[in-house]
Amino acid sequence: MATPRAPPQAAVPGGGAGAAAGGVTMRMFHGDVFLGEAEVFPMKQGAEGSLPFPSNEIRISHLSPTSERCPPLAILQTIAPFSVRCKLQAKLMPPHPSLHRLYLTCFNEYKSAVVVVGDEELHLVAMPSKVEKVPCFWCCSVRSGIYAASVGMLNLRCLAIVFDLDETLIVANTMKSFEDRIEMLSRRMDIEDDPVRIAGMSAEIKRYIEDRELLKEFIDTDTVTDNGRIVGTQKEEVLPISGGQERVLRPVIRLPERNAILTRINPEVRDTSVFVKLRPAWEDLRSYLTAKGRKRFEVYVCTMAERDYALEMWRLLDPEANLISSHNLAERVVCVKSGSKKCLQNVFKDKGCHPKMAMVIDDRLQVWDEKDQPRVHVVPAYTPYYAPQAEMANAVPVLCVARNVACNVRGGFFREFDENLLRKVFELMYENELLDLPYAPDVGDYLVCEDTNFAPNNKDVAPIPEGMSGAEVGKRLNGLAYPRDQKQIPSSTRLSDDDGVALRGIPGGTNIQSNGGSLATTPSLFVTVLQEIGRLCESRVEFRSTVSSGKNMQFSVEVLFSNEKIGIGIGKTRDEAQVLAAEKALQNLESNYLSFMAPVAGVLNKDVNKPPGSGNGFLEDITLSEDISMEEPSGSTLKEQDHSKALDRLSSVISLIRELVRDAAAALIFHFSVLINCLEDQHVVFRDQVRDSGSALNGEYHFQAELGGQILGRGIGLNKDFAKLQAAEEALKTLKTTTDPQIKKHLRPMQQLNFPLYPTQRHRETV
C-alpha cells in the first residue's frame, strides 16, 4: 500500500483558490443519519458552476470499495479526468463527530463517499488541507458503476483487451462457404493470363478442397482421415452461460498438427458443421494473458458474427474458460450487427471497464468507432489458404507481436500511472486548483494506430475473404444460400511512415518487428543486415527500447545478440534510435563478438541448451513499480530511409565486416554489394515490378534485371534487398551462359564478373 498522507489540520474559508467564491450551506446525510452541515463551493463560476446535489442536500448512499494502493482521486482522474464538480468542507468548528468519522474513514482506508444521482455517481474524496482539523472533500462525477470496476483493475495493474474473431484469431468455413470460394477462384483463373497468378490460385484451390473433404467426412461419418490416420470425435461439454441452459455435448475433432478444429454448432444438425483454423501462436498469447496465476488483462470479445457461432468459436479458443469465466461469458462476448460500428462503450455496457483502459486486437480498423480507433492494434488478416506460409515464416508470429504490443501498452500505462499520476496526486491539497491535476494515461497513448487492410491498385486483385463473417454466419449455418458479404476493402489505406525489420520470411507490407513493435512497409538496411547475421549464426537478435521521462523525450534502443548487449542508440524517435543502435552493433561485432560467428566451413557455434528455433519471439519479464511484471517489447518501427544514402553510410560498416567474410553473414553482405555493383557496371537496370494481389498481401517485393530491354532475371522476396539480390544472381547466370546476340552487344568485358556466387576465404585477399 502506498504511504498514507497526513490528514488536514484546519479550515480554509471560502473553499480555497480552486473554488469559486460564495459557498452554499447544505445538510449532509449518510443514508438517514445526519452528519452535519457543509459549505459547498462550485469549481466554476456561472451556469457551469451549478452544484450537482438535488434538493440542496448531500445524501451519501454508500462508501466505495477499499483501494489497496490507489487513492480514490487517482482512480477518478484516470476514468473521468478533471471531473471535479465542487469542493465542500465542514461548516462548524469543531465538526460534527459523525462527519469527522466519515472523513477519517475515507482518508485512511482509501474510500470515497458516494452520492447517487440518476445514472451518475458523485464521489466525495477526502483531501488533506494546509490548516487544522477540518473535514474537507473534493466532489468528482463519474458514470455509475465504473468506479467499482476500475478500483480492482488499477490495484491489480490490470487492463482490458478486446478480441475480434474472424480473420483475427480464426478462419472458419462451412461446406457452402468452401464451395463458394472454390467457385470464385475458378472464375478468376478462367480470366487470368499471368501464369504465376494462375499457379497461386490453383494452389489455393487445392488447399480449400483438401479441408473441404475433411469437413465432408466429418459431416458424413463423425471421423476424419488425417495423413492416413482415422480420428474420431470427442464429445465436449458446453458450459452453461449465465441465465442457464440445458447441458450440451458437441462433437469435436481437434487436429493440432494442422492448427485446425472441426465442430458442430448445433449437435443435432450436421449441416452446421464448421472447419476452423486457429491462428498460430494463439496458445502463447493466451498463456501470457493469465500468466503466473494472475490476470494481466480482462478479456472481452467483439464480433459481427452470429451469437451461437461466436460463443462456440470462443469456447474452442478458451476451452477451460481461463480468460472469460462461464459466469461472465454472456456479457463479455458482444455481437454487433453486421455493417454497424463496433464501440468500446457498448462492449463495456455492464460497466466492467473504462474505454481508456482497454486495447483492441482486430484485423480491421474502420469497423471501430472513430473515438476508439487509437486503441486498436491492427493485425494482418489471417489468410491460411491464400498465404499459408505467411504466419510461420515471420521471425515472430503475428499473435506473438500482439502479445508484445500488449506488454508495451500495459507497461507504458502503469509506468505513467505510478511515476506521474500517483506521485502528483499524493502532493495535492484541498486548496489546489482543478488544473493542478496531473495527466491521466490512456491506452491509446501507447499504440501506433495502423490499418493493414489490403489496398489494391488498378492492376492488383485483392484476395478473397477466407472465412465467414457478419450476417453470413447465421445464413450459412441455417443452410440458406447467401451471397458473400465481403469485408469492405478500402480503395486507399494509410500506411505507416515507419520502417520495420524486414528479413527473409517477414513480409515487408505486413511486416512484424521481431521485437514486437508495429507493422511496417520498408526495411532498414542496417537492421536487415544485423538480423541476417543473427539468423545465419542461429543467434537471436533483439531490440529493446525505452523512453526517457525527461522533457526531451529521448528514445534509447539496445541491441541484444544472444542476450549480450552489443550496441545502443539514442535518438529523438524510436526509428532513429534503432538505426543508430543497429549500426553501432555492426561495428562492435568484429572485435567483441567473434564467438557468435560461424567459421568458413559453415559449422555454426551453437548453444547445446538452446536448439535452433527455440525462441518464441517474447522478451523476458522486467519489474516495474513494485510487483508489475511484464515483457518490455522492443518495439518500434523505422522511418523510411533514402536507400542510396543508407548504402553510403553502410560502406564504413561493410569495411569492418569484410574482415569476417569467412562467416556466412559477412559473405551475404559481400555478395550483395559486389554483385549489384558489377551488374550495374554492365548497364543492367533493376526495376521494381508492380506486385500482384498475393505479393501485396504477403509483403513480397518483385524485381527484374534488364539489359537493353531484355529481361535477364527475376527476383521475389519479402524484402526489397533480397528480391533484388535474387534477380541479380539469376541475371549473372544468364550473362555468363547467354548466346543471345541482342544481349551480347550491350555487354562490356566480362572478366569482372568471374567470381563465385558465395566467396570463400580463398577469395578474401583478392577482393
TrEMBL record:
UniProt organism field: Oryza glumipatula
GO biological process: hormone-mediated signaling pathway; negative regulation of DNA-templated transcription
GO cellular component term of the entry, any: nucleus
Keywords: Developmental protein, Hydrolase, Metal-binding, Nucleus, RNA-binding, Transcription, Transcription regulation
Domain of life where this protein originates: Eukaryota
InterPro entries on file: dsRBD_dom, Fcp1, FCP1_dom, HAD-like_sf, HAD_sf
Enzyme Commission code: 3.1.3.16
Residues making up the signal peptide according to the UniProt record: none
Cellular location(s): Nucleus
Coiled coil: none
The keyword Metal-binding appears for this protein: yes
The protein, known as: protein-serine/threonine phosphatase
Gene Ontology MF term list: metal ion binding; RNA binding; RNA polymerase II CTD heptapeptide repeat phosphatase activity
Annotated ranges, domain FCP1 homology: 154-402
Cofactor(s) needed: Co(2+); Mn(2+); Mg(2+)
Catalytic activity as recorded in UniProt: O-phospho-L-seryl-[protein] + H2O = L-seryl-[protein] + phosphate; O-phospho-L-threonyl-[protein] + H2O = L-threonyl-[protein] + phosphate
